[in-house]
Design a protein that fits this description.
Layout lengths: L10 H7 L4 H4 L8 H16 L5 H10 L6 H11 L35 E10 L4 E9 L5 E7 L5 H14 L4 E4 L3 H4 L1 H9 L3 E4 L9 H13 L9 H17 L11 H12 L10
Parallel strand pairs: 1-4, 4-5
Antiparallel strand pairs: 1-2, 2-3
Helix pairs in contact: 4-5
Length: about 280
């Protein structure tokens, strides 16, 4: 991993070579109490089951489970986690002030090839003594994860880093679909897409199911990987996520793909569309 006192390479350069955001290198466990971290883990698990729970419903649920909580506390924790209920939106998912909201372009669209539509989203990762955020970009047609990044903040930079990696490895999509979160309405994100000629699509306000495929990815990731571990550091989390993402792309059978892994379908489809071009498999 990165060495702070390296004689030749700065921390920023080392992070770039390791494909991690610099903020992840400086990650320190958040100062939440053990009780709040436990509540955040339970909120995250319940949210996977009932993504329509807003602050009031989540507060009632936790009270029914025996926790002494109020709406003010749960609102703060859900905002901190970046959760976006279907009908209620915490501040962390509000659009960046002054930026345009693009229409949803996928309704009725037949997605029939790789790189036709990509989707991006952010999720919360519980740690033993804190938490991180994970962004992933997937190909809608094959469900392949094209790039991902971990960060300890909800700033847009780690999302743009993941986008740049995906474009470098796979070219650019025709359409990019996201929610209306501030990271995806920011100038840094939208300008990068517009300069590539990518059409920008955004879910309707509170429309959880508009980006359903990446939401399913989060559910699978958390139950098969995240909830089975108690990572101590950002480097441990990154190593664990990398191992699972490799398994998901290259080895995990996918029911919607006839039991084949996403990477297999992706490269088969690419080769069929470009039979004369020798393709190089990218991890």
């Amino acid at each position: 991993m990165a060495e702070p006192g390296h004689p030749a390479l700065s921390v920023g350069k080392q992070c770039a070579l390791l494909s991690i955001s610099r903020s992840s290198f400086y990650y320190m466990p958040k100062g939440e109490t053990e009780i709040n971290l436990t509540l955040m883990r339970q909120i995250d698990e319940q949210f996977l089951e009932t993504p329509f729970f807003g602050v009031r419903q989540m507060t009632w649920h936790l009270k029914n489970e025996g926790h002494r909580v109020n709406e003010k506390r749960i609102r703060r924790l859900m905002r901190l986690m970046g959760l976006m209920p279907i009908y209620q939106k915490p501040n962390t998912s509000r659009p960046a002030k002054g930026h345009k909201i693009w229409p949803y372009l996928l309704k009725g669209l037949r997605v029939d090839r790789p790189n036709h539509v990509w989707a991006a989203d952010i999720t919360y990762l519980p740690m033993r003594r804190g938490f991180l955020y994970l962004v992933a970009i997937i190909d809608w047609f094959t469900r392949k994860v094209l790039a991902w990044r971990i960060s300890n903040t909800l700033e847009a930079d780690f999302c743009v880093e993941a986008l740049n990696e995906a474009v470098h490895k796979f070219g650019s999509p025709e359409i990019m679909n996201t929610d209306q979160g501030s990271q995806f309405t920011s100038f840094a994100w939208t300008d990068r897409l517009r300069r590539m000629g990518v059409r920008i699509s955004m879910d309707g306000k509170g429309r959880f199911l508009d980006n359903i495929f990446i939401e399913r990815l989060w559910r699978t990731l958390k139950y098969e990987c995240v909830y089975l571990h108690a990572w101590e550091s950002g480097s441990q989390a990154r190593a664990g996520i990398r191992k699972w993402m490799t398994f998901y792309n290259h080895h995990r059978p996918h029911s919607a793909l006839g039991g084949k892994p996403p990477a297999v379908i992706y490269w088969q489809a690419i080769n069929q569309n470009q039979p004369d071009q020798q393709m190089q498999t990218v991890a």
